[in-house]
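Section 4.2 – Deliverable D4.2 (structural model, holo form)

The reporting period included a commitment to supply a predicted holo structure for the target in complex with glutamic acid. Inputs used:
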Amino acid sequence: MAGHPVRFRTRFAPSPTGPLHLGHAYSAILAHDMARAAGGEFLLRMEDTDLERCRPEWEALIVEDLSWLGLRWDGPVLRQSDRIDSYNRRLEPLAHRGLLYPCSCTRADIRAALSAPQEGVAFSVYPGTCRGRAMQTRAAGDALRLDLAAAFDALASADLRFQETGPAHAGPHRIDRATALRQIGDVVLSRKGEDIVAYFLASAFDDADQGITHVIRGEDLFDFTPVQVILQHLFGLPTPVYHHHRLIRDEAGKRLAKRDDARALQKYRAEGMTPAGIRAMVGL
Ligand code: GLU
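Output (structure tokens):
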């Protein structure tokens, strides 16, 4: 008989662009506790593909904060910045299959599309200006977009679905072509010259490479799941189970973000708060 495959392996995947706040603590503790309760594994991954905003000092502080919270992760920390060439190489077969096209639309448009989402900002659906351009016309600075309609044609016989266990969207979800074309469109996957790849692409590759069986993350990322499932099918990768959890908000109902340094874990630590106190504050 083959060895025992891991039944439950999850990860916490912060972007080291600022200090961890209470919302991150909730996400990390929840993923950690669910993994331990299932007798599974909990991994740590640094999603540091945005080289302009990520800093080694934030990464060091993340490791310090998580350790202080009492969380232990299995295996070494995976760093996406070490893997950008490999992500780009893995895109090449999609270009050969006619599923990508170069796009010269503005830098700001593309940058906004590449970075991790902010609350209230879903995909801005690309109008298709550059669709149909041949790969050979790709110039320095051009982005690569997925031709989503062509991708659906290529996946005509695929069963595009995922299982969600989070409270807000629990149940099976099927990805429908018309809805995806309307809501997602031709997303940017990478940008030449700056060596950057879309967050949801790197994350989909890493979840597969790390054998993640359960993705546990904030509800703000729910809308990215369909595009990740489409990519998994295009690259022949497995689809994990998804669990999108509630977001931690302040008294005014505003989501806590990294910019709210007032809620940084570091600050609570300095004020003498205990890890048990943090768990209680986020309701765990
Ligand atoms: N790196 C993303 C963030 O900081 C999380 C990605 C994920 O968990 O899939 O919001």
